[in-house]
Structure formats: structure tokens, C-alpha cells
Amino acid sequence: MRYWNSWGTDTTEKPTITEGARQFVRENLGEGRILPQATLEEVCAKVPASRLPDHELICKDVEHRVRHARGQSLPDWVAMKSGVFDRFPDGVAYPETPDQIRELMDLAREKDFVIIPYGGGTSVAGHINPPALDKPVLTLSLEHMNRLVSLDTESQVATFGPGTPGPMVEAQLARSGYTLGHFPQSFELSTIGGWVASRSSGQQSLRYGRIEQLFAGGRLETFEGTLDIPTMPASSAGPDIREMVLGSEGRMGVLSEVKVRVSPTPEKEKFFVVYFPNWRDGFNCTKTAVQSRIPLSMLRLSNATETFTQLKLAGHEDLIAMLEKYLRFRNVDEGKCMLTFGITGTRAQYRAAHRQIRRLVRHYNGVGMTIGDRIGRIWEKGRFRFPYLRENLWQEGYAVDTLETSVDWSRVDNTLNAMEDALRGALADQGENVHVFTHLSHFYAQGSSIYTTYLFRCGETYEETVANWRKLKSAASQAVVAHGGTISHQHGVGRDHAPYLSAEKGELGMAAISTLCQRFDPEGRLNPGALLEA
Amino acid sequence: MRYWNSWGTDTTEKPTITEGARQFVRENLGEGRILPQATLEEVCAKVPASRLPDHELICKDVEHRVRHARGQSLPDWVAMKSGVFDRFPDGVAYPETPDQIRELMDLAREKDFVIIPYGGGTSVAGHINPPALDKPVLTLSLEHMNRLVSLDTESQVATFGPGTPGPMVEAQLARSGYTLGHFPQSFELSTIGGWVASRSSGQQSLRYGRIEQLFAGGRLETFEGTLDIPTMPASSAGPDIREMVLGSEGRMGVLSEVKVRVSPTPEKEKFFVVYFPNWRDGFNCTKTAVQSRIPLSMLRLSNATETFTQLKLAGHEDLIAMLEKYLRFRNVDEGKCMLTFGITGTRAQYRAAHRQIRRLVRHYNGVGMTIGDRIGRIWEKGRFRFPYLRENLWQEGYAVDTLETSVDWSRVDNTLNAMEDALRGALADQGENVHVFTHLSHFYAQGSSIYTTYLFRCGETYEETVANWRKLKSAASQAVVAHGGTISHQHGVGRDHAPYLSAEKGELGMAAISTLCQRFDPEGRLNPGALLEA
């Protein structure tokens, strides 16, 4: 069963937090502040009467409405933990066919309500939160449309229901020997339609591409009719309609079918972890690897604080002690930086890539290649476990959040430092420390994403906690924008990033996007407030 | 000097046509019909008075107007050869700065004229032809904005003037050890701005990507202001503005600066030609190569008729005789298909790719790998020479044109056959043969482009020639659309393909594109009639 007020499901093996980790956090941030948590019953009792009409496709049950009221942003957590939701959707629908989606949209026009398309509810930017409107709000959950509809093995194109979550995408493809290869951190819960709507990127985008490269076409139900996007490998015939749907965050229409480019399950895949004596060596190795097109499937370079923190929080204390001893022996100690990478392909391709990266790691003074696959296996096993740690920390009285951007290589260092500095100093006036660390991932010849995690102590109250988060988020977002970074490389815009979007799109770019949304949804009934502020 | 009524410049080494080739064409199509050609003087004498106002940036010289009146489509050739142009631009401007572009756009609004942005004038789909309008037409040639403005070697991003032609792009980058790697057939004359505006693709797109992947940002001057597109390696923040500009064919604005992703000059590059005993083997080898991600930089598979025709037309008669003898000895004879491929990269990557493709070619009964690089060098030397052959054939009384699409793998065979059949039969009612052959190139895991060339005899008159071309073009275009192919994989839409665009975009897709164009150019002053019929 999915948790109603936390990440994940109760059937998943979760990480634990060791005494050493607990002590590390306490030393850095002070004694945690454990705030009282509301129960599901208490929250359900607060849900007001629904303003939606009765309809066989609309469920007005209060628990359903609570469970679809919020995503996974930090303000969402504060709402779920405190029980102060402000708003709930007036109902939830679970259509099973494109026709039912259309039926609900027709009803929305007739009965004057708005619709929030809902995939896995994993947004960390407020994509699916009910807006403050006089009109009733229907959350349209696509979770029942979760099947592999067809698979063209010759063209390697698979057609899915839009609400298919990551594990069901992979399991249904695996039966025929295929993979999509899209593994965002939210993989366990997020859906293929959500990936398209929010321009998602997965851990192995270096091989498989971002969702922009994987999305081949499909159907979008709009208020002006159905937009059918046929599959074609490429076209020079005018602007690409796919690219207008990608990132439209439910403002243009509801995806009722998603076609994606799949690949045969690779013959061989392994992940490795190696260590560099300092940031500069790791940075140069990674940049060179991607710019010289070494065919890796993932790369992730942690800065010294992230490396240090991960080793503290990882568990596996005996193994880590042994590793640290070995690294010291190889003169990789204080300031060391961890690089995680994956090699995927045919056996011949695997061998070729392994040879190339091994040589490069050595050239840049990296060590640990020989034992690197053992730690790589630990990473692989826990690759979707990180979000669960948020709950562990919360229970100790600490909040954790992440933010990210991407910039050209010539701006990576300055942007990273500015983001970290902004976060570290944001609560100084209250005498509160913020523990900040960063990795680069999602590498491109042109630049890299920058992914920063920050831990801070909960406030005395929920209000103070969310107020502190706002200070942190706003300071870091301003730093991102000031350095020419995108307000999001992989989380999307939602409501939390909307105020910063115009910095990268410009006035005319914003006008273009807004014109498109209006063209497909002239009455503004679809997810108002997401992507565009108005 | 650029030819005013043919492809290319008079300083380029051109291919010659052998007696054997001449005979081959004559046997297939009958005696050529050589039509009388107009001279430049005759055409200049027909140019009407300009309707444009006097302005220091506007040149009204008749020869300039003749030289910018048409592109390189077959109807354009008929116009240029016959001297019957119908329309000329009322003037040509050669702005040198973004400000001068804006000045001319302001003037267009003030004096009520329309503007056709003009790159290299290499369109084969009627992109830059003056429309039939009451308003004066200014052709805005960007040829003076042809410089590398800046190069960020760390991020591998280069900023160019929009009118920089292929050879100047490469030469200016080569000085710093970089390449763009974009080599369309029109490379010698087409420009970087034109590539973006028409969503171009180059011969080595397998390595470097299409222009969509290379275009990193820049400036578009629109009637609503300047659209600045900042460079970022990737973003999930809403629909991608770059993708709206790509393929906008001058309808949204005039590119005044183009930023592209460049690569270091590769350590090693070679091209190879090998032969398969039949289409099926060649098809399977090529499809497997691309779907299993063998890191090649180009692939081009000719069908049996193209292979046969190329060997007939290639010149190098002794070498070809020797080759054919060798192939017969290896049981590769009638029905054989030629595969051209390129390997590009570091030495280690070259070796790895060479090993992988060699094994695959052998597996699919391909032969000639050991001597393949010698013929590959001939291909490389002549890679931009093919368009010159059109003039040779024209002088013999024959017309040649090409058309292309892309489709998913499961549709390639049927679409290819339908296109060829449509062309072969299109002039049957007149008892005219059409010589048709095809290659696949621009490969994707999902499918392939299909590039078909057709030769036919000129008509008794120019009118008959262009009428026959219309029958051919329309038959093939209908076949493309009926099989779900894009109306263009690399040539763009222009005016010739505009009637077929809605087949792939759908009514709503067309509405989206049209809405965007109107948002940026509310009065319809930019290239009216291109891309969208209205």
C-alpha cells in the first residue's frame, strides 16, 4: 500500500539510519525537532463537501481526495505531516479508456470544473496541487491505464497507457526482451505519462536519452479535440509537435497513450564506483569521458561533501571502513570525490568502453577500479532507495530537499558554488546550519546537470519549517537563474518553479508557451497555475 | 562565381559523364530532349520595376533580384533554364548586423512589404520563392553575416552569423581544432541559419546528430521583438523554444545568430563501401548495426537499382570493372546492394567500431571490406559532387530530382516500394519511362530515411517538363503520406510540400504551428506561403 503522507509503499525494503549517521547529522545541524504528525483520520475529517456533480466516473470518497491532494515537494510534506492541506480536489476519477477521459473533459466544460491530470503524484514542484479557485477541481488519475498496449519489435516502439509506472513499464517490456531504460529517482512510483508531461530524465540518460529522445508519439486529449502524434524516426517537416507536448505539464491536454522507443535488454551491464583525490581530477575525468564520447550508460560525480556524507549515511560500516583505509593507502583521503558510472551494451561494446574509461580514470589519478564494481553493486541495489531516507531523517526532526539545474561546462563550477553558498547562508540569520552537498549527473558534451541536496533542522513549528524552506529554495533558485541555469533539468516547473521560468524563456518564449496552452485549452480548465503562473 | 541558373560555383571541380553513362540513360529513357536555355541578360531584361521604397540597405539591381528569385527545386530549374520566372523579389538586402535586420523589419511594417529570409538559396521545396502578392517582396540575404563570432571550447559551443555556409563553418572551426560535423548534400552552399530554419540533417548525423541536436540556441528577430534562446545542455522547464524555431522556415522570425554544439576534430575517420548479394542481407545488416548501437558515423544502403546505376555513372571505369569482377568471384552479382559507412572517433573507438561492423558485414554475407576503404575514399572525395550531375544530365535532355521521407522500420520496405512504383508508373500514360532508385540513410533505431532519385526525359517543352514533374511529385508524395511517412526527412516543407503537411501534423498540430507563427508575426509579413499554405 502506498503511504498517504510519505514516499513509497509499505512493501518496499527501506534503508535504515545508523547511529553514526544520526550523530553526524546532529553534530552538523543540532538536535532534531520532531513535530507532531496528523493521522489520516484527522485529515479525512477536515475534507469539505465536494463541489463536483455526481457522475459514475467521479469518486468523491474523502480518503481518495486526501491521497491525491499533494505531491512530494517539501511544502507537500509539511502539509501531509501537519495535516494542514488548505485544499483538496473535489473528487478523483480513474478513467480506463481515452473515451472516458474525453467524457470527463466534456463534463468539465458542461459543469464548469477544472481538471488536474495525475500520474504517480511524485512531483517535487507542486505540479498536481489543487489551485485556489472558485471552480471545483477534479483530479484525473491515470493509474488504471497502465498496460503495454502494443510492441513493434521491428521498429522498437512500444505503446503504453499513460499511467503505467516505471516498474510496470520495465516488467511488461522485459517479457519480450526489451527495456525502456528510463530510470528517474522516482522510478518506482512515477508514470510514463508523467515523464513526458514533465520532461523527465533518468539515471542512464547517457545511453538511453532523456524522455525527449524516448517519446515517439501518442495521443493527447485536448479541449479542441484529440491530437494524434504519429511515430516517425525523424522529420524536417516544420516544428515538432512532440516537443510542444513534452513539458506541457497537463496544460495542453491529457495524454491518453504514450509511444516510446525501446531497446533490447543489454547483454551486459555493470556499475562502478571510483574515487579521485580531489574535485578537479574528478571533474576533468568526467568531462573528458563525455566529450570524447566514451559509450557509458551513466556518470555521477559527487563533490567532496557529498562523498563524505554518502560514506557516513550509507550503512555497510565495515565495508566502508575497509574502503577508506584502502583509499588512504592510495593517497585518496580528505577532499576525495566519488564517481559512479555504468557500462551497458553488447559484450564487445562493454569491453571497449571499459578499456577506455579505465585508462581515463587512471590518467586523472582515480583509484578503486578493481573493487569498484562491488561498491557499484551496492549503488545499483539502492538506486531508488534514496527518497526513503527523507522519512528516516524526518523522524529524527530534520528536513531534506533537493534542487537541480543544468549549465554549460564553462559555468558549472561557479553555478555549483553559488547554489551551495546560497543554501548554506540562507538561515544564518537564525543561527541555523544547513548541510549542503552536490553531484553532477546527466552529462552532455555541452555541460552537466547540477543536483544539490540540503538538510536542515525542522523549525519549532510547521509554519517555521516551511518558511525556512522558502528562504532556502528562493535563495538557491535566484542563484541558479543569475548564473544562466535552467530552473529545472529534470523536476519540471509545476507551481514552485513557475516564477523563475521567464528568466530562461524570456518574454517572447513565455508568450509562445502561453499561446500554445490557450490554443488547446481556451477556457483554462487544465491544471491552471502549473508551468505558467496565470 | 555562383551559377545563376544551376547548382554550384564555376570554381568547383565537377563530375563528368562518360559515354557509357550517356548510353545507359539513353537506353532507359530514350533520346534526351534538349530545351533552349535563356541567358541571364534575357531574364534580367524581363524584371519589372521594383515596388520597394528606396533605402540604403535595399539593393534593387535586376541581376541581384534574378539571382535570389529561385532555389533548386525542379520547377525552379525549369524557371531558370527557360527564363520564365513569373515573379522576382522587388529587392535584395544584405544586412550585416542584427540591428540592420531589425531596421529592415521595421521598414517592412512601415512601408507594408513582406520579407523572405534567405540563406544559401539551396531549397529544393520552394522555400524562398516570392509569393504572388500585391505587396512588394524583399529578399533578406544573410550572406554577409558569415563569421564565427565566438567559441566556448570548454562547453564546445560556437556562435555563428546565420548566413555562414558549410565550408566557412568548418574552416573557421578547424582553426581551433573543432568541427560541427553537419554535412548535408547541399553543404557547399547552404548556411547554418538555413539548416536550423529547415531542420536539416547531414550525412554523418549518426554521430553528430541532426541540426535539432546541434542547435544550442541563438537569436531570432521577430515582429514582436527579439527572442533570445540561451544555451543550456538540457532542461525540463516546459516546452523547448529551440524546437519551435527549428523548422519554422522563416515564418516566426529571422535568425540573427546561431549557437551550435561542436566537437573536437576526430583523431581518425574513414569511409568504406561494401556489397551485399541482395537487399535483404544489406537491410538486416544495416538495421542491426544501428539498433545494436555500433558507433558508426554514417550509413547508407543503396538498393540494387541505385547500386547498379551508381556503378554505371561513377566514372572510374577500370576500377569498377575490376571491382565487379571481384564481386562476381565472391558470388555477389545481379541484385547486389552497396553499403557505404563511416567510422569516426578516437583511435580506440575507431578500432572497436571497425571490429564490430566487420563482424556484422561478414555475418550478413557482405564482401569487399578489405578494399572497401579505397572505394570509400572515392565516395568521400565526391560526397558533395552529386548535385552537379544534374547539370550534366540536363545538358543531355534529362531531368533528375529526389524526394525523401522517413518511416519506422516496420514500414520501410512497403513505403520504399510504393514510392518507387508511384514514380515508375506516373508517366506511363505518355509512354515515358522513369528511372528510379533509392537508398536508405540517416538511420535510427526506430527506422530510416528513404531517399529516392528519379530521372526522366525532359518534355517537348518546359511546360510539359514541369507538368510531368508535377505528376511524378504528386504520385510519390501521396504514396509517402499514405504509408505514414513524413513529407520530408531533411528537405523541409517550403511551398511544394505544404499541401501534404497536415497529413502528419493533423488538424490540431497545424493549428499549433499556425498559432505560433501568428503570435510572432501577426501581420504575416515573413515568408508567407512557406510551411503553411495560408
UniProtKB/TrEMBL annotation, chains A, B:
<keyword id="KW-0274">FAD</keyword>
<dbReference type="InterPro" id="IPR016169">
    <property type="entry name" value="FAD-bd_PCMH_sub2"/>
</dbReference>
<dbReference type="InterPro" id="IPR016166">
    <property type="entry name" value="FAD-bd_PCMH"/>
</dbReference>
<dbReference type="InterPro" id="IPR004113">
    <property type="entry name" value="FAD-bd_oxidored_4_C"/>
</dbReference>
<dbReference type="InterPro" id="IPR036318">
    <property type="entry name" value="FAD-bd_PCMH-like_sf"/>
</dbReference>
<dbReference type="Pfam" id="PF01565">
    <property type="entry name" value="FAD_binding_4"/>
</dbReference>
<keyword id="KW-0285">Flavoprotein</keyword>
<comment type="similarity">
    <text>Belongs to the FAD-binding oxidoreductase/transferase type 4 family.</text>
</comment>
<dbReference type="InterPro" id="IPR016167">
    <property type="entry name" value="FAD-bd_PCMH_sub1"/>
</dbReference>
<dbReference type="InterPro" id="IPR016164">
    <property type="entry name" value="FAD-linked_Oxase-like_C"/>
</dbReference>
<dbReference type="InterPro" id="IPR006094">
    <property type="entry name" value="Oxid_FAD_bind_N"/>
</dbReference>
<feature type="domain" description="FAD-binding PCMH-type">
    <location>
        <begin position="85"/>
        <end position="265"/>
    </location>
</feature>
<dbReference type="InterPro" id="IPR025650">
    <property type="entry name" value="Alkyl-DHAP_Synthase"/>
</dbReference>
<protein>
    <submittedName>
        <fullName>FAD-binding oxidoreductase</fullName>
    </submittedName>
</protein>
<dbReference type="Pfam" id="PF02913">
    <property type="entry name" value="FAD-oxidase_C"/>
</dbReference>
